[in-house]
# Entry
Amino acid sequence: MNVNLLDLKPQNAALEPELREAFMRVLRSGHFILGPEVERFERSLADFTGARHALGVSSGTDAILVALMALGIGPGDEVLCPSFTFFATAGCIARVGATPVFVDSCPVCFNLDLCDATQRITPRTKAIMPVHLFGQAAEMDGLLDLARRHNLRVIEDAAQAMGATYRGKQVGTLGDFGTISFFPTKNLGALGDAGAVLTNDTALFERARILRMHGMEPKYYHQTIGGNFRLDALQAAMLSVKLPHFNGYTESRRRNAALYTERLGKLPGVRVANPQDCGCAHAADVKEAARLVLPVAYPHNGHIWNQYTLRVIGEGRREALRAHLTARGIGSEIYYPLPLHEQACFAGLGCKPGDFPWAHRLSGEVLSLPIYPELPADQIEQVCAAIADFPG
Ligand SMILES: Cc1ncc(COP(=O)(O)O)c(C=O)c1O
# Structure
């Protein structure tokens, strides 16, 4: 039987009566953009995350854009962000006219390396944007301390990590802003594009709210330039149906991750990443004795496993394993094959591959396996059996 990397159909099928009802409610209301459905979802999201304010916006990308604009970040400013992440993080920094300053990553948690970040701060640095990659929080105590010492604003890109916790607190609520994506593949997925901005700062929330609608306040009067970053009522209604099930989805993802680690961890040449190794200044040219390194959730983190991402060690081995899985009908994905500092669009920044050795190395090693909540356990066994058969 084929094992899909992701299948959104079973989750939606289980909720079909409620989704239909919500759809019909919006259809009959005649109110399709912002309005009561969006406000209701925003209140539920604020309650769920513990943020003082939640603002529904059009996507996770627009959430980052709104946060940067609300903080007044623009030309001449530098913003620290990881190189090993999805494009939107740095793309938005560049879109507001600021300069993304890339930071290397930790090979254990895949998140921003704070020692490297410290070394890249200049008098122009205005903000730092950690990304809670694959569903696990970045090291926020150290990061917030660094931000305080250098007077930096903090935008947490929590696109992949809604519901994840850091020392008991929800990610996205620790910095000035948290940004969330409800892209359908995320742990809380809309039936289209959607996103949200979280903040505990009422003045910043007000600014973000006005920016969401062309910087307009009151109607047709513009003190500032914003955009159309509005959330559709239909998406808010769909998300309101799914949010009460979110913790159940997380439990299933955790169970799936634990099963992978249990099964794969027994194979020869496989080790689980060691939380003790997280921190600064790992040498990226270090020889790794294992052939596969499994991901780990730090004890102080509530990981929500948006991805289960292995490191496949050895030149060409990741591609070979992926081909081996594909030949057996097993889906997998490479998040991300090229770090941002090596992307053509950022060539003008003058970065060389070796400037961020771990970002460069991880891009050649990572492979994500199917982990969606409804994935049957026997399909996980099938993936593990296929990996056990992988030669070498
Ligand atoms: C880390 C990260 N940031 C930002 C985004 C952008 O979110 P969206 O696709 O909703 O615009 C994503 C989505 O894939 C992401 O993974």
